[in-house]
Specification:
The protein has 238 residues and is an alpha+beta fold. The protein has a domain of 161 residues: tt1808, chain A (Alpha-Beta Complex), CATH 3.90.1570. The longest helix is centred in the first third of the chain and has 20 residues. A hairpin with a 4-residue loop joins strand 11 and strand 12.
């Protein structure tokens, strides 16, 4: 099934902030240079992210619940990469901007896996000669008023994991720029993403490190063998 839907814009208050649990400020007719200048003036802004789409600029605060799911999913993905003997280079929620496209955003988390060697020693991302992340995480507890999936498609990010706390799916970029939703990731073809969701949910009886240990055991159970540590293009036992 192809999905490339623009979410309906939430109602706005008279001062421009979008109503709801998450605060959003959406500005229209913002020049590219202004977007870049604002972003450069606010390099460290935890809990606040900016999304720019051809003149529309959104400021959005993320909720504690959003941040919790983001941290947990990124950590579980790291365990999955490790158990598969792959290499990866994480760059968190770095800003991705393409002037010629007039689009930019910060993913919740992003990773280079197939292109890890290219980004291994890099401290920034230059779209003129660096590949886009191989995989991005989009937590949809706090949802944008803009079509962030359309921006990911324009930036040519091949795979986005979308999680709303109850479901997790991989969205795979198609040649025509649309997205195909999948229950599995091509990077980990035999790991059902639905099986990751129970580990994401906070528990009153299992602490954070206990969750990680439980997930590692689950991954090894899915593989049916002990971790080999051998790097490969895919995880052959998953």
């Amino acid at each position: 099934m192809n999905v490339l839907a623009k979410p309906a814009a939430p109602p706005r208050t008279p001062d421009g902030w979008v109503a709801g649990e998450t605060q959003r400020l959406v500005l229209q007719d913002v020049p590219w240079q202004s977007y870049v200048a604002i972003g450069d003036a606010l390099p460290n802004r935890p809990g606040l992210r900016m999304t720019y789409d051809r003149g529309t600029l959104e400021f959005m605060t993320t909720s504690p619940e959003h941040e919790k799911y983001k941290v947990r999913l990124a950590r579980l993905l790291e365990v999955l990469v490790e158990e598969c003997g792959l290499r990866f280079e994480p760059m968190g929620n770095m800003t991705m901007r393409r002037e010629e496209l007039e689009r930019g955003l910060e993913p919740d988390e992003c990773f280079w896996i197939a292109n890890e060697a290219h980004m291994r020693a890099r401290l920034d991302w230059d779209p003129t000669h660096d590949p886009p992340p191989d995989l991005a995480i989009e937590i949809e507890i706090s949802r944008s008023a803009l079509n962030r999936m359309g921006i990911y498609a324009a930036l040519r990010v091949p795979e986005v994991w979308r999680c709303d706390g109850a479901t997790l799916r991989a969205h795979l970029l198609q040649p025509d720029g649309s997205w195909q939703a999948s229950e599995t990731s091509p990077t980990f073809p035999r790991a059902p993403l639905a099986g990751i969701v129970p580990f994401l949910r906070p528990s009153e009886t299992v602490d954070y490190l206990g969750m990680i240990r439980g997930f590692r055991a689950w991954v090894r159970e899915q593989r049916g063998t002990a971790v080999t540590g051998r790097p490969s293009a895919v995880c052959p036992s998953l």
